[in-house]
């Protein structure tokens, strides 16, 4: 059945109200109507759904749409019924949410021929009685939506999806169209092979979404940063992704307490609540939805203005898919992710116990995410390269790395050394292994291959592993090296790389960004993200506040950070507090500190505000959720009763790490606590004196990282933190 372009345009106008097709839509539709298989790769917002909705409406028979999410099916069916108002039976779904009478109604509409689109979950498709029933129908074509679910290399591997091909063969042959918004060349190949459509025509649109802004921030003060960001983008729609249901609930609660209209969404909620929360977001009853990755597949909300990742996702496919839910209307879309290597280690732990091959795949995907997060290259370049697309613009102007670039250097010699090393090795190895050889790191794997005896072992020792990892990553983007995903990321030289080795030329490289692992929530002194972590306070006032802190510290003979930490001064420069009460709203300033040290600071700020005629912002006070305050009271009571800290943690079902975080927050806000009884039981007196003296006389800040480096290996992190708590409590409060 050949149809003219005019006919398709008239149907497009009649059903969907559009005057013209977007991108390759028309080509895809004609190809499908002509009875051919198609594989459609289109970024989120590119108009994938129309590629099967329109042909289904104009072709004889019913189209079977295999779709992974029940919530998504209902949305899609409602949308189609909205386009074809006079025929409710035009679209149906068949899944476990229907009762017997509803299933019968669907079957009657199918048999009478009035249904043109049937949405089916892969689990329903595999049921014997459904297969027998579908065999009686004329099938126009099969559409496999979110096709990346088929591939174990994709980010949402579902074994039921791998049974689609044999079942489709059994029901009855018809053209197949597979659609996805994210697929690397490897995933694409996997999908086509699995659906028996290796000869299908591939329609591929560029993965570049030029209206999206990408930024990675260090995971420090995350909750506060998020609240600050949302309040600066008041009234805009946004999604916050967290990895666990517990974190989703916590963050949603925190936002509500802070006057932000937000709701949670995760698989643990009952279906009614989940659907109602989703509808509230779509209908703009709330501004922000806090969700696990279960949310958003196929959600057609065009004006999501920001997507925040509280936790970094497990793969770049997930990241791309989730960030792709912002700015689908071509308008602004800000994508902010908080990154800490600790989260990566947590994700690796979750993989333990899975089959080895699955662990290897998972680890490979995680390492790609680490490369993306830590890289100083244009985020677009790295992302598109991952999806097999070259992005040849030097500065995209819309990611943190391009807006705040790091210095470049000529890496000709370094790249040549890496290529030389790889070309002389008989076997192939992964990035980390090669970086370890260059940096001269001796570990058991290096020894087992005798690589510590190689001529190039340790040749770049002075530069460290991170540097060599960055060189290898950038050589991959320049196509001088090739990473074999099939073999879990083994690296080899490309023909271009071998040419470079014969005749090296200037190649500009950038060192990776340094992400400082911050154990204490108040350690914002190292800006891990490109924008100053102070969040854009008044630089001139900040400078005056630091001078005042310096003179007060001299007068009282105390280290400056004991008086107020850097984040506290950052907040003062942002909020301009004029009274002791307002000063307490600043981070890390409780009643004790405000009363003890605050007078001179608020006087300085008041004078500055008056002289510079400053309009003060509405106070940004991050209110904590009640149960957090309850935990603080519980901890203080336990300490008054001289209970071991481990027992206090156990009684509340929390980790020792959480207790230390709470204790730090308590002393930073100016409350005095005495944990000498616990310190005496757990740390040698000599160690306590050493650590205490370090903070008293040598430390320039209360940074845990600096303290660990300065004090050396004999001191554990927990020991330093406990003594630091004692020190800050005694001197600061």
Low-confidence stretches: 518-535
Percent of sequence in beta strands = 5-15%
Tell me, what's the shape? globular
What value does the average pLDDT take?
83
Summing up helix and strand content along with how strands pair, one would put the structural category as: alpha/beta
**Number of E strands:** 17
CATH topology of the largest domain: Rossmann fold
Instruction: Report, as a whole number of angstroms, the end-to-end distance.
Output: 83 Å
Q: Report the total helices.
A: 34
Q: What helical percentage do the residues reach?
A: 40-55%
The domain tally reads 5
- Biggest pleated-sheet summary: 7 strands, parallel
CATH class of the largest domain, please? Answer: Alpha Beta
Radius of gyration: 29 Å
Find the CATH superfamily of the largest domain.
P-loop containing nucleotide triphosphate hydrolases
Strand order of the largest sheet: 3-4-2-5-6-1-7
Under the CATH scheme, which architecture of the largest domain would be assigned?
3-Layer(aba) Sandwich
């Amino acid at each position: 059945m050949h149809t003219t372009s005019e006919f398709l345009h008239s149907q497009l106008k009649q059903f969907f109200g559009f005057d013209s097709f977007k991108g390759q839509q028309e080509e895809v539709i004609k190809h499908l109507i002509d009875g051919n298989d198609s594989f459609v790769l289109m970024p989120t917002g590119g108009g994938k759904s129309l590629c099967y909705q329109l042909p289904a409406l104009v072709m004889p028979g019913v189209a079977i749409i295999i779709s992974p999410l029940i919530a998504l099916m209902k949305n899609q069916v409602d949308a189609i019924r909205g386009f074809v108002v006079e025929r409710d039976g035009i679209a149906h779904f068949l899944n476990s949410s229907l009762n017997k009478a509803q299933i019968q109604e669907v079957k009657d509409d199918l048999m009478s021929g009035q249904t043109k689109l049937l949405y089916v979950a892969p689990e329903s498709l595999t049921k014997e009685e459904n297969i027998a029933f579908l065999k009686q129908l004329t099938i126009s074509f099969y559409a496999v939506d979110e096709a990346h679910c088929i591939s174990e290399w994709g980010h949402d591997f579902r074994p039921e999806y791998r049974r689609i091909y044999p079942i489709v063969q059994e029901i009855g042959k018809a053209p197949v169209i597979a659609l996805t918004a994210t697929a690397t060349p490897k995933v694409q190949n996997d999908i086509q092979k699995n659906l028996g459509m290796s000869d299908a025509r591939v329609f591929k649109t560029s993965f570049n979404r030029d209206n999206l802004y990408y930024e990675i921030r260090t995971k420090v003060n995350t909750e506060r940063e998020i609240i600050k960001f949302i309040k600066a983008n008041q009234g805009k729609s946004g999604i916050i992704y967290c990895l666990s249901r517990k974190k989703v609930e916590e963050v949603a609660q925190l936002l509500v307490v802070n006057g932000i209209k937000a709701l949670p969404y995760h698989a643990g909620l009952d279906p009614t609540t989940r659907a109602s929360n989703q509808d509230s977001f779509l209908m703009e009853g709330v501004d922000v939805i806090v969700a696990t990755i279960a949310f958003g597949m196929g959600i057609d909300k065009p004006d999501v203005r920001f997507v925040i990742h509280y936790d970094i996702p497990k793969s770049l496919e997930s990241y791309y898919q989730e960030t792709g839910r912002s700015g689908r209307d071509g308008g602004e879309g800000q994508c902010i992710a908080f990154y800490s290597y600790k989260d990566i280690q947590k994700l690796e732990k979750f993989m333990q116990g899975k089959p080895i091959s699955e662990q290897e795949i998972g680890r490979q995907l995680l390492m790609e995410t680490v490369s993306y997060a830590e890289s100083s290259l244009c985020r677009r370049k790295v992302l598109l390269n991952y999806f097999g697309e070259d992005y040849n613009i030097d500065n995209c102007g819309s990611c943190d790395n391009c807006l705040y670039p790091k210095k470049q250097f000529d890496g000709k010699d370094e790249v040549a050394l890496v290529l030389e090393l790889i070309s002389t090795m008989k076997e192939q190895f992964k990035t980390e292994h090669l970086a370890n050889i260059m940096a001269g790191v001796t570990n058991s794997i290096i020894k087992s291959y005798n690589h510590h005896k190689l001529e190039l072992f340790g040749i770049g020792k002075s530069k460290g592993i991170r540097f060599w990892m960055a060189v290898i990553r950038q050589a991959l983007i320049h196509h001088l090296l090739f990473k074999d995903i099939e073999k879990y990321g083994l690296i080899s030289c490309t023909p271009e790389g071998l040419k470079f080795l014969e005749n090296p030329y200037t190649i500009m490289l950038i060192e990776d960004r340094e992400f400082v692992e911050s154990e204490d929530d108040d350690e914002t002194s190292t800006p891990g993200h490109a924008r100053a972590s102070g969040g854009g306070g008044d630089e001139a006032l900040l400078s005056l506040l630091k001078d005042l802190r310096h003179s007060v510290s001299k007068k009282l003979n105390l280290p400056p950070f004991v008086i107020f930490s850097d984040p506290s001064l950052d907040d003062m420069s942002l909020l301009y507090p004029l009274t002791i009460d307002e000063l307490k709203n600043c981070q890390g300033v409780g009643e004790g500190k405000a009363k003890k040290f605050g007078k001179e600071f608020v006087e300085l700020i008041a004078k500055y505000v008056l002289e510079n005629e400053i309009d003060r912002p509405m106070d940004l006070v991050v209110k904590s959720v009640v149960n957090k305050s309850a935990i603080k009271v519980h901890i203080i009571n336990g300490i008054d009763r001289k209970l071991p800290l481990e027992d206090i943690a156990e009684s509340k079902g929390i980790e020792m790490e959480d207790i230390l975080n709470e204790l730090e927050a308590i002393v930073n806000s100016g409350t005095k606590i005495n944990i000498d009884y616990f310190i005496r039981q757990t740390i040698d007196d000599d160690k306590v004196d050493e650590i205490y003296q370090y903070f008293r006389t040598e430390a320039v800040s209360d940074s845990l990282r600096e303290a660990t480096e300065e004090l050396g290996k004999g001191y554990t992190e927990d020991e330093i933190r406990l003594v630091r708590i004692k020190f800050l409590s005694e001197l600061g409060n």
